[in-house]
Design brief:
Blueprint: H1 15-18, E1 64-65, E2 71-78, E3 88-96, E4 104-109, H2 117-124, H3 130-135, E5 136-141, H4 157-165, H5 173-194, H6 203-216, E6 222-227, H7 229-240, E7 245-251, H8 260-285, H9 288-292, H10 297-310, E8 313-314, E9 320-321, H11 323-333, H12 337-352, H13 357-367, E10 369-370, E11 373-374, H14 377-388, H15 396-406, H16 413-418, E12 445-452, H17 458-467, E13 471-479, H18 490-502, E14 509-510
Parallel strand pairs: 4-5, 4-6, 6-7, 7-12, 12-13, 13-14
Antiparallel strand pairs: 1-2, 2-3, 3-5, 8-9, 10-11
Helix pairs in contact: 6-7, 11-12, 11-13, 12-13
């Protein structure tokens, strides 16, 4: 759905953590096996026997160099295994081989849904701790519908510019009609240009592809690191292939039991709380926005937002910054305290002086737009979200939710609630349903939650860790979306490194 800052897609500002980098110009539910005993947290886990129900080993991948030490390959998989006449999909895979003694492959997914894992890994390879680069082939694949793998496409660049310019939180009948028309045009474009793949981009099917990729890489069991929506792929894998897991880390977890309204309400709270934390920090540090306005910063922010809605700012070329670009631009910076917060502060200061170019740049970074147009991040995001859980097929529930969240989370809440409207008209029916994931038969699974994560609220990580039969929760007290990367606290880096490399299961902890 037009996943606004509510988006589970990851912004380029959070590059060191889990950005969904564009691939433009780059190379390219459950069947549960028998339960096995799992070690107690804090003990060392030895590798168990190979899966007994693994898919047949596919033909060897044909690797080619694709720059900066990476190799790329394509794995051919059926569009629908039950309907071979529908043909195949080529899964784009990349890897960077281990620099030292190799344990196996570590498959990484940055989230989204819609973020290119291939582009992400290439952009962030050096951000991984050196011990992981030493002992693992770091690998990633673009899920079906995303990036280099049968990408979902819906609208042209100019049409997408117009779509994202629509007021995401309309307060007049004219604005509401524009939002309805925009979503209907978007959905019709997806049906026209991508009908073949739309029914087959579900997270459940992507998790099956993950198991095919694991086998193609030659790994008896999966070692996986998923960020944000990548945790949903991991949870679905645990649903279907729990005994195929060697080790799994899920950072910035989604709660697989969340209904559509719980998802949007949770993110409404997350982004408003994150904005409050940013404004408090801005006040304390005299950031650029603080220096450009007088009086209460929250009131100044609200006044600026209203001003932009009434009189859009000049952006870049013929493009202007209205409430859509304003909301996305500010939301983009909330993903990362380290570099996102200073960017928002400067962008708001510029906007206060009538200049919107910086806000537009933040908006574009979030949407994976550059001078060549858009990556298909947002189009794929719609395609996956709309089929992964049931959504209301009329508009009233979304507007009711918008009115509800506006009472307590007025700055992002209404726009986030209405970001689901596109699913009201989606051409492909939902096939997934929210449900508990236990991972029965899996080894211990490490779940990481950040207490003030705007996009995947901390309570979601708590919930997933409790659902899993062998979930271990590591809590990071801090701001921003996800945490595991170079520069993270040692109390996160060290136990995760030890778990992935030596299978030493960490104890539940907070730091």
């Amino acid at each position: 759905m037009r996943r606004l800052p509510a988006a589970l897609a990851l912004t380029a500002l959070a590059l060191a953590g889990c950005s969904g980098g564009s691939t433009k110009g780059s190379a390219p539910t459950p069947t549960v096996a028998a339960t096995t005993a799992a070690p107690t947290p804090g003990t060392s886990q030895q590798a168990t026997s190979a899966p007994t129900s693994a898919a047949p080993r596919p033909a060897a991948l044909s690797w080619r160099g694709c720059g900066s030490g990476f190799q790329c390959a394509t794995l051919t998989v059926p569009l629908d295994p039950t309907k071979p006449a529908l043909g195949n999909v080529g899964i784009a895979i990349t890897r960077h081989k281990a620099t030292g003694s190799k344990i196996g492959s570590l498959l990484v997914n940055p989230g989204g849904p819609g973020a290119s894992a291939v582009g992400f890994l290439k952009a962030t390879y050096t951000s991984y701790p050196s011990t992981l680069r030493q002992h693992f082939d770091l690998a990633a694949f673009d899920p079906r519908g995303v990036g280099l793998t049968a990408p979902v496409r819906c609208l042209s660049t100019s049409q997408l510019d117009a779509y994202f310019h629509i007021d995401p939180a309309p307060d007049t009948d004219t604005e509401k009609a524009a939002l309805t028309a925009g979503n209907k045009k978007f959905d019709a474009g997806c049906a026209s240009r991508s009908a073949r793949v739309l029914p087959y981009v579900t997270t459940k099917i992507v998790a099956q592809d993950l198991d095919r990729v694991r086998a193609a890489l030659g790994d008896a069991k999966l070692t996986y690191l998923g960020y944000s929506y990548g945790t949903a792929i991991g949870a679905s894998y645990l649903d279907q292939f729990p005994t195929h897991v060697r080790a799994m880390v899920l950072d910035g977890a989604l709660d697989p039991t969340s209904s559509w309204d719980q998802l949007l309400a949770g993110q409404s709270k997350g982004f408003d709380v994150a904005l409050g934390a940013f404004l408090a920090n801005c006040q304390a540090t005299s950031c650029a926005f603080r220096k450009s306005v007088s009086g209460d910063l929250t009131a100044a922010f609200d006044a600026l937002a209203a001003k932009v809605e009434s009189h859009p700012l000049p952006g870049s070329g013929s493009r202007t910054v209205g409430p859509g670009e304003f909301t996305l631009g500010v939301g983009a910076g909330l993903y990362s305290r380290g570099n996102g917060w200073p960017a928002i502060a400067q962008a708001l200061a510029d906007a206060e002086h009538g200049k919107g170019a910086y806000l537009l740049a933040l908006n574009d970074s979030y949407l994976d737009r550059d001078s060549g147009g858009y990556a298909n991040t947002d189009e794929a995001n719609f395609a996956v979200n709309c089929v992964d859980r049931p959504w209301p097929r009329t508009e009233k529930p979304y507007y009711d939710l918008a009115a509800q969240v506006a009472k307590t989370y007025p700055r992002f809440g209404p726009a986030i609630a209405l970001s689901g409207l596109g699913c009201a008209y989606w051409p492909t029916p939902a096939t997934g349903t929210p449900h508990r994931v236990t991972g029965a038969g899996s080894p211990p699974i490490v779940v990481i939650g950040t207490t003030r994560d705007p996009a995947t609220p901390y309570v979601w990580a708590q919930s997933l860790a409790k659902q899993l039969d062998h979930g271990v929760l590591l809590t990071h007290e801090g701001d921003g979306h996800t945490v595991f990367r170079n520069g993270a606290p040692n109390c996160i880096i060290r136990p995760v490194d030890d778990y992935l490399v030596s299978l030493k299961v960490p104890a539940t902890s907070t730091c």
